[in-house]
């Protein structure tokens, strides 16, 4: 993302200083059809630096596509997290394995 210019920063401060009632939105038509809306599209969770030890071949694979390997790793972990938290998780698998073990 490019850095904001001084003029852009000035304009943002000027708009932020206005009250909602003082902002003219007459040129923006109201949205009447929300069928194409995407929930959470612009949600960005807070990032936190961590140190992890990963296998060298995993790191090489992540870096193979060039810059953005940390973003790729985060995406893969988020995908795994959502998969495991939708009832297909490790906790439910452990319970199933315990039941099978007790039945024998």
Give a verbal description of the structure.
With 104 residues, the protein is mainly alpha-helical. It has a domain at 50-104. Helix content is 48%, strand content 0%. The chain has four helices and no strands. The chain has helices spanning 6-17, 56-63, 69-84, 90-103. It is elongated. The model has no long low-confidence stretch (mean pLDDT 85).
Structural class: mainly alpha
Strand tally: 0
Q: Termini separation (Å)? A: 59 Å
Secondary-structure element pattern, one letter each: HHHH
Helicity range: 40-55%
Largest sheet: none
Radius of gyration: 24 Å
Sum up the structure in keywords:
104 residues; mainly alpha; 48% helix; 0% strand; elongated
Structure in a nutshell:
The protein is mostly helical and 104 residues long. It contains 4 helices and no strands.
Write the layout of secondary structure elements.
Layout: H1 6-17, H2 56-63, H3 69-84, H4 90-103
